[in-house]
Each structure stands twice: as C-alpha cells, then as structure tokens.
Amino acid sequence: MITQNSRRGRHDAQMIGLDAARFIAAMLVMTFHLGAYAWQAPLSTAGRAFDSAAAYPGLFAWTWFGWIGVELFFVISGFVIAYSAEHATARAFLRSRLLRLVPAVWICATLTALVSLAIGRMGSVPHVLRAYLDCVLFVPVEPWLDGVYWTLGVEIAFYALVFALLRLGRFRSVGPVCAAVGGASTLFWVATLAVPSLGTVAASRVAELTLLRHGCFFALGVFLWLSLVKGPTAGRLCVIAACAVGTLIEIGDAAESFLFQMSRSESPLLPRLVFAACVLMIVASVRGNAWLRARLGERGCALARRLGLMTYPLYLLHNVDGAALIHRLVGAGVPPHAALVVACCAMLLTSFAVMRWAEPFVRGCLSAALDRIGLDRPLLAEGRHAPGL
C-alpha cells in the first residue's frame, strides 16, 4: 500500500512496473502475430500481408499465447486511468485522452495505409482508403485497416465510463461502478460455462463495446489501484478475486478461438499462467516502485519510460507492416527466421521514431487546436501516465 505520507507525490512518481508491463505486453502481441498468427491465419490482416511467405512451427510453443498481451493492456488501462483521472476534471481528462490516442493513430494508420496500398494484397484501393478513414476517425466497427485496431473501441468505451463519472462529479463512485461492470462481465463468463451458446454473444462487437466481454479486466485494474494506492479492504479483495475468475474464463475462450483459427490444439493453462504472472509482476512492482526507481537511477527510469511510450505505436504498427516486411525480406532471399528478427527490430525502431519525433509534432499541433477551442489543459503531465495501449 502507498502510505498517506507518499500520496502528495504519487502522481509525480513514474510507475516503472507499468512501463515494463506495457512493453512486455506489446512484445507478446508482436511475437504472436508475426511468429504464429500471420502464417496460420491467412484470412487475417496479418495473414494477407504475410501471404504465406514462411512458417515457424518451431516457434509456435513460444509464441501462440502472445495475444494475452491485449488482455494485459486492459488491466493496465484500468489501473492507470483510475490513477491519473483521480484529480482531473472531465475536460482535462478528455484532452489528455485525445492527445494520447489521436497522434499515434493518425501517424501509424497513415504508414499502414501506404504499406497496404504498396503491397496490393489488402483489398481494393477504395477498401483500403475507407478502412483508413475509419481508423483516423476512430469508427469502432469493421472494416479494419489492421486487425489490431479493434481494441481502440474497447479502450474508448472504458474511457467514456470514466469521463461520465468525472463529468457528473462522481469519480468517488469509480469503485462501485467498476465493481458492477466487472461483476456483470464475470457473471457472464461464468454463465458461458453452463450455457456454451453464449459464446456467440461473447464474440460479438456489441459484447466488446459494452465491456461485457472485457469489463472484468478493466475492473481488475481499477481495484488493483484501489487496493495498492488507497489500501486493501475485504470488499476490494473480493472484487479482485471475482474479476480474476472472469479474466481466466475469458482467456480460455480466447485461447479456444485463436487455436481454432490456427487449426491447433493446446491447453489454455499456459496463457492463463503467463497472464497471472504479469499481473503479479505489476502488483509487486507497484509495491516496490520506490525501490525500483532508486536501483534504476535517472537513466534507467528514462529508458523504462521510453519503452513504455513506444508500446502504443509498436502495437499499431507491427501487425500488417511487420508481416509485409517479412514477406519482402523472404522474397529477397533472407532466411525466414532472420527475416522475422529483422522485422521485429524494424518495428521497434520505427516505433521509437514515432514516439520520439512524429508523435510530439502531431501532438503539439493537436494541442494548439484544442487550445483554440478552449479545452482545458490536463492537470497531469501528458505521457507520464499513458493508457494501456
């Protein structure tokens, strides 16, 4: 628990573990898409960009569960958004989310659209342009320019819930409200065990955008924040335990879906264990944040921060762009495994460039535009407490 004496400065303290968890989550998703999904799900956006360029059966055991990085992002979002919104106004919160989400999407979607048009395997030109327009306008339904964009609508649904609480002056009710959201999500997942046909509902976009599917993850993050920052209570620990049950059932369902798409058969135990280990890492790192900061020093903290900020553009860029690069490298005679390594490194470097130079420029322009319409500046330094994605 963060003590009362430390609360005054808690919003100024970088959470090293959250930056690390974000980066780990992004790497998990990238290795899954490029090392497992792209060559086994040819109808996916990654699969079309990859175009059967290679196969990595030897890596499957180490990459197939990487999609749990997305679920981990949702937990991090629950923690961080509650942590950073506590002392914000509704207008300041809205501004901070716009400045965080919009620049990277505009930049990365543009790069992906150019790649999609260049390779000619992602559909007709009108289809690509429509999907691109939907991305930059944050339309929450298909068609996707890149399959990874499905998560943005889910994140925004959670942000909208927090914004509504701030707008109504009821942020103190974030616990009960998120307990209701997480409880409904968990009850739904428990019900799927008795009524398997509910799996069809779980797979719908409506279930995603209403947080019925992933509400237990966001609520888990919020209640980890409440317990670690405000202090644990019996009620909070019960909500954490209940939401944990929901998350593990959802992970089992997601595992079944991905394995079906890839015509594979594996136990859902491994992704559940990896997810649980990452959540425990977050808990341990928050409790030991001061110790970590002292051991890493100023340079280590700055590096961790940059890795954390890289994860959002990395998540948006790696799938189609990385798969297309592997296809090009293999076609040029590069061995498949070397092409995979080069593509991953290229996505990391591109993400760093977006984070270091492109995003600040676009964010500055957007910030000036928001100033002109009178949208409040955030109370907290933007980028310090970034969302899960």
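The record above closes out task 2.4. Task 2.5 opens with a second protein, given below.
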Amino acid sequence: DFCLSRGLGDVYKRQRLRKLGEDITETPEVIPRSWKVIQRVREKFSCRACEKVSQAPAPFHVTPRGWAGPSLLAMIMFEKFGQHQPLNRQAERYAREGVPLSLSTLADQVGTCCAALAPLSRCLDAHVLAAERLHGDDTTVPVLASGKTDVGRCWVYVRDDRPFGGTAAPATMFRYSRDRGGAHPREHLASYAGLLQADAYSGYGKLYDATRQPGPIQEAACWVHARRPFFVLADLTQSARRVAEGRSAGVISPIALEAVRRIDVLFEIERGINGHSAEQRRAVRQSVSAPLVAEFEAWMREQRARLSRTHDLARAMDYMLKRWPAFTRFLDDGRVCLSNNAAERALRGIALGRKSWLFAGSDRGGQRAAAMYSLIVTAKLNNVDPQAWLADVLGRIATHPASRVAELLPWNWQAGRVPTSKAA
C-alpha cells in the first residue's frame, strides 16, 4: 500500500508541474593533446625459384631517413614561425607530454622541411613579382654573432590587389639580409617593373631611375608615414590620456591638428571606394580628392613659409613637399593605395616574435625564416589554416608533379583532400 500510494503521489506531482523553459550552462573544457606512433609492417619474402628477397618499399618521410609524420612536422614549423615559439621551448613542452625530442633533432627537421618546401617558395615569389603594384617595407632582425648580436633586416613585398578589385590572390615575399644596404631591394626586385608603395628609405632611390632595366619602378608614397609626425605634434594621444586622468588637456598645436584633420578626410574618402575597380577609384579621386589635395598643398606651403628651418612642423611638411609627386600619384592611378599598411601588417608577426625568439641563430637561419614567413603569412592572407595546409603539402609534395606545384599554393589548396589535413 505504501509503494502504491507513493507512486500515485509522484504521478500527481508530475501532472501539476508545467515546464516553463530551461537554462543551459556551457563549460569549455580541453582534451589534452594525444600522440601516436604509426607502425607499418613490411614483410620480407624469399623466392626459392630465383633466390631473391622482396619487400614492400619503405613509407615516405619528408626528411631523408626521417621518423616524423607530416602533421608533426607541420606543428613544429607553425609553432616556430607562426606562433613564434623557439625550438627549445617546444622541446621542453614535448618532454612534459612524454615525448622527449632533442633540440638538435628538431633543428634538423626544420632545415629539411624548408628544403622540401623550396619549390613552393620559388613559385610564390614568381606570383608576387608578377603584380602590377607591390607594398614594400623592412624591419630589424637581431642575428647571433661572435659574443654579440648584429642587426640584420627582414624585407617584405606584398601583393594585394583586393583594394582595387583585383582577382589575383594576395601573397607575400620575405627576404633576409645582414644589413640595410640599398643593394638588397635592388636585388630582390631585379626583375620587377611596376608600382612600389614604400616609405622614403633612400635605398629605394635607384629603383625609380628612368634608365633602369627592365624598366623604372614608380614610387607611391605612404600618407600614414606623413600623417604620423603631425599626429605626434598635435599630441592627441597625450591630451586624451590627461583628460582620462582628470587633468586639463595639454597644449595642442593648431597647425598639426589641422594637417591631421585634412589627411583624415582623404582617408575617409578612401574607405568609401575600397574594393572598387581602379577606374572607379580614379574617377572619385579626381572629382573629390584632387581639390582637397591641392588645397592641402597650398595650405602647407603657406604655413611652411612662416616656420623656421629647424621647426619640427617644418620637417614634417618638407618630408611631404619634397616628395609631392609620389604622394599625389594615387590621384591618377586607381591601383595605388593611400597607405602602406599592407606591408606593415605583414611584418607585425616579426615585431611581436622578436620578444620571444630574441635573435636568429645565423644568416642561414634568417633565410629559412624568411622563406617560412612567406608561406605562413600568405596562407593567413588567404584565410587558410597554415598548419593544416603545411601538413597536407608536406605529406604529398614529394610525389606531386613539379610542373603543377602551383596547385599546392594556399589559394589553390582545398582542405580535406587527404587525411593528414584533418589530423593537423
């Protein structure tokens, strides 16, 4: 009787309850990375008739007499060049996970992978140098020397036709050098003739020579570089900080503030035509931007005449006025961008990574890093997972026809074609 009455009571309660809704609490959790060893058994057979021993061929490894699979190699390469994790830190982490790998072993794998990917790097360089317009920039790279570090350079050249409606895939080409001599960009761009958007580095000067072969390179200056000293002199950042701290705003240079305001108007116009065709961009610039640029030039020359030669504002104005044809080239060519931000974004990873890896071990290490930066940054520009792409490419580049190596470039690659891409 007790059990029966209890059961009826539960039924009665359920009949009185009505569901109003539900709350879901989601708690992210992580599954630790797992390692596995794939064993491939190759049986040997002897033939009693011909007295020969036969055996299936050994499985392919990216490195000669290697041991690591493509997904592991892709992880090592991406961690080092994409996530800026030095090999010694990787070795420590792998050891804690129960996989002891020596630093020298990892370094050997990196060098061999760079050699295996060299044909892809050359194909990528050819694609970049076929552009009508390039962005160029460079940054410092400390290089280990005898008892010290030297200051090397890492150069980047970016092809990105998307701002003027181009259909070619964006790509980057990195180069390493021991110094910042002007001979290096001349060597990098020896076969190039077109537009180059860069800063006012004097080493680019001979590239703009009219007698240069295979043709002169047209200079397009960066308005962001020109705006920067005016912005500093306007002291906008410091003034905003003082106001946030409850103090009175600092003294702001009205001339510098006016220069910043005029340049910002031009950038606002550019935001409205970004992605349009070169012809459409040129038409808008001729009708809207050209009068503003002419007024800006006249205003600067008027203000410059009132300033002393050593004034900081005078230097900022002279920087633009001495290179005025390069600054106004965007008015007559819709392919030109107003800024060189594409190159600066490509170098951002190196600037962040310097605090982690501290220096390149040698010139050869710097050259390898430049080649890998080219591949990884290009993959990111094309919204491709660099590690998955590297795992796929490393797994089949040895058997891929050399005449079709362009099929392995990030924008031609399709994820999921082989299992190694999923494993990555």
